[in-house]
Amino acid sequence: MTITSIAFNAPELTPMCKKFWRLTKPLRATINMPAGKGYRIAIDEGFLTDLRSGSDLLNPIVPKWGDWGTCVAYIVHDALYTRHFMSRQLADELLRDMLVEAGMGKFKAALAYRAVRMFGGRAWNASDEHGNKDKVFLEVI
């Protein structure tokens, strides 16, 4: 998948506990791809995210919190895992490519991709215990 650009408003997050953050304002992101294709995603206020899943021991390699582009990639990925607008593999590929577009090196983005491919199944199959489903909307462009 090739991303030509990403546009988004900076997310506003409030920590909920050590692991989760809640969006305090809606997040809007447009992911542009060649030939005028791409996605527009809207994530409403109140959406709960853990940003990059996994142990804090991974932070020196693949940080949980980074620049806004990195955070948006993680939030969008969490939203796609919540609503299943696309296959899990496509959602994981989109995460990897958004991380690269945000400036993360290809090696680190590939590590993040491999981690969600290996360990993301449980999150993909989880129930919506945080009430996030009604807060995520996707438009294919």
Salient structural properties:
141 residues; alpha+beta; 7 strands; 4 helices; three-stranded antiparallel β-sheet
Question: Would you write up a description of this structure?
Answer:
With 141 residues, this protein is of the alpha+beta class. It has one domain (5-140). 35% of the residues lie in helices and 21% in strands. Helix 1 (68-83) runs antiparallel to helix 2 and helix 2 (88-101) packs antiparallel against helix 3 (106-119).
In short:
The protein is an alpha+beta fold and 141 residues long. The chain is built from 4 helices and 7 strands, in the order E-E-E-E-E-E-H-H-H-H-E. The protein has helices spanning 68-83, 88-101, 106-119, 121-125, and strands at residues 5-8, 13-15, 21-23, 27-32, 38-43, 48-49, 136-140.
